[in-house]
Predict the structure.
Amino acid sequence: MARLVLKFGGSSVADMVRIRQVALRVKREADAGHEVAVVVSAMAGVTNQLVGWVTDSCRLHDAREYDTVVSSGEQVTAGLLALALQNLGVNARSWMGWQIPVKTDSVHGKARIQDIDTKILIERFAQKQVAVVAGFQGLGPDNRVTTLGRGGSDTSAVALAAALNAERCDIFTDVDGVYTCDPRIVAKARKLAKITYEEMLEMASLGAKVLQTRSVELAMKYRVRTQVLSSFVDKPGTLVVDEDEIVEKETVSGIAYNRDEAKITIVGVPDRPGVAAAIFGPLAQSAINVDMIVQNVSADGHTDITFTVAKADLDRATAALRDVQAKLGFKALKPDPNVVKVSVIGVGMRSHAGVAQLMFKTLAEKGINIQVISTSEIKVSVLIADEYTELALRALHTAYDLDAA
Ligand code: ADP
Ligand code: ASP
Ligand code: MG
């Protein structure tokens, strides 16, 4: 007998037929004598619609009410799955975040889980009851419902698996594992049997939305055996594991892209000590995160600084900078939302030279201009024009020898 957490994403619970299929899958584990907690997302498309209603009603909305509205999708699926399980004769009960409770911090819309009380769920396991938990939601210190950021049900599942000391956390989704690149864009992408926590963390934070970044952080911290697999076909998925479990280390194991960033160039900044602090200070004060940064060589005592922020923050960032334009004395501000960040990732990079060079050469051969570059020990990222996303991903995938046979 094992204790398992199974998570089903939006496409897996998209309608009543699929919810019934999920119930059959859960029943299999319960019949095998396992203690099972299921975490569900809202039906596909529902969260987007709820977010749309909130933003339509008010652009600068109250984050607490945003959470009240957008958390509701998961409540519906949790109830429906509990009913579907009961129809199959399985003892099942639904749980909202506040009922367990899943305690979070107070950052509405993007809360972090702080503690999960597992007492009630463990009592119910002893009564052979399956727990169906609404993902994506928790309870804040203000006693109100919080949500964990888009894609947050993955984090609910991994956090619950860690708290319950579960043997495994299975993330069921619409692809049968983690691929070398998004299989919807690169048809030749290869499924990985295993990927390290570290690489998965980079892939997720660099845009591969197959797992929410925070869920991988938690899986890594608490060593949760996490598997990504298909809810439609019955075969093993991708295991996220420690580095020493991987025998053959590829130099580059994956390529990710992120269309959620925008570029800002500040033209003609007087090049003197303290100017970078003066630019990035107001952004930090407005809680705007800056990602990639490049400063040009100075000419005539002036320089250009280019950096990226989340697309959602672009308007606020330009407004904050215009406020300090006179004080800083720069000439112009050029916002550009039509960019994409493309990254190659691999732990093998630590011991192999030439990875970045191959990336630059491949993009140059396709006539793609690189606007900003950033690197870390196990990744190289470049910013390019959005229109070249597909071309760049496919060319890099081939260049790094990742194409499926
Ligand atoms: P769910 O609703 O089940 O949480 P998501 O849409 O959040 O599913 O995540 C699955 C999607 O992630 C896939 O449909 C795929 O397009 C995308 N994806 C991006 N990068 C990758 C990758 N490297 N491997 C697998 N899927 C990826
Ligand atoms: N339903 C939420 C979303 O769409 C959470 C999730 O699916 O993980 O972001
Ligand atoms: Mg998801």
User: Anything to note?
Assistant: The chain has 13 helices and 20 strands. The CA atoms of residues 1 and 79 lie 26 Å apart. The chain has a mean pLDDT of 95. Residues 9-10, 41-42, 47, 73, 135-136, 150-154 surround aspartic acid (ligand 2) (CB under 6 Å).
